[in-house]
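Inverse folding, one chain.
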């Protein structure tokens, strides 16, 4: 256990806070509410959290920056280009349009500028979820299957390892990337999560190559060593911890999103900051998140 102080920096009852992403040029943190769809932009210099105008529909799953400007948004109906100046979406593709019982979930870009996104079984009971890589030409390759809830891609500093979580399967997997060809190896076990530690959700990797994993219904963030062992845990005052990202000018602040959805009145009374945005300084730095090259 670790005695690092975690501060609530935006007190807000987001239903499903997710997808924290530091924009180094703006020195702002972007993050989402997936279920009460909203894109937030947090300014750490002023403490102001702004809701941005965008046509998000009824649900949003993730968002990444685009190298040529703008953003890519992942929703139930696939990937779309987003122009934040107008809030308009331009549909691009859907990796699995023939699987109505699945929905897309989470996204991030690897060190080669390819977008990784996965799917989950809407009932969160069957291993029908998959994970995909979308290259710069919008070609889609399936790299993992048999997941109940594909979640939290993250990548090693050298870009050779990808980490994926199956939240409901309480497992984190490791996949190897051939940097010359872009080929991805089959998934292999990295860490199994005990029930009392919650379910693995969003993830990121620090500059030392350690993996940080948010834990839904675990009330914590866990740092895994490269061999999968637990290096440290940071406890939060809320149970549903959803994702993590390093930010700040020196990438030494760990931002943490949380959720309020599904909690009973009694649980919300015990954890009134559920859904808020938190931050701490864990003593290590993160890495810049790559933008999508397509």
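Residues assigned per position:
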């Amino acid at each position: 256990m670790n005695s690092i102080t975690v501060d609530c920096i935006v007190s807000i009852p987001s239903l499903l806070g997710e997808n924290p992403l530091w924009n180094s040029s703006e020195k702002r943190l972007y993050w989402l509410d997936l279920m009460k769809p909203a894109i937030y932009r947090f300014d750490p210099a002023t403490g102001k959290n702004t809701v941005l105008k965008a046509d998000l529909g009824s649900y949003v799953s993730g968002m990444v920056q685009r190298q040529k400007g703008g953003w890519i948004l992942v929703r139930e109906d696939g990937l779309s280009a987003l122009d934040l100046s107008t809030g308009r979406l331009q549909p691009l593709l859907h990796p699995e349009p023939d699987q109505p019982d699945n929905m897309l979930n989470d996204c991030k870009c690897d060190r080669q500028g390819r977008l990784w996104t996965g799917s989950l079984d809407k009932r969160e009971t069957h291993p029908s979820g998959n994970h995909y890589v979308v290259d710069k030409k919008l070609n889609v390759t399936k790299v993992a299957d048999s997941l109940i809830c594909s979640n939290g891609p993250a990548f090693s500093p050298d870009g050779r390892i990808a980490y994926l979580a199956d939240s409901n399967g309480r497992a984190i997997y490791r996949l190897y990337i051939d940097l010359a060809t872009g080929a991805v190896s089959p998934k292999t076990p990295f860490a199994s999560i005990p029930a009392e530690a919650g379910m693995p959700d969003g993830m990121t990797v620090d500059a030392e190559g350690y993996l940080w994993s948010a834990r839904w219904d675990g009330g914590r963030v866990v740092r895994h060593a490269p061999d999968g062992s637990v290096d440290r845990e940071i406890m939060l005052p809320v149970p549903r911890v959803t994702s993590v990202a390093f930010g700040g000018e020196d990438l030494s602040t760990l931002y943490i999103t949380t959720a309020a959805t599904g909690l009973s009145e009694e649980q919300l009374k015990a954890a009134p900051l559920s859904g808020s945005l938190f931050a701490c300084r864990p003593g290590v730095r993160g890495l810049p998140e790559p933008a999508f090259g397509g």
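The chain has one domain: 7-280. The chain has one helix and 24 strands.
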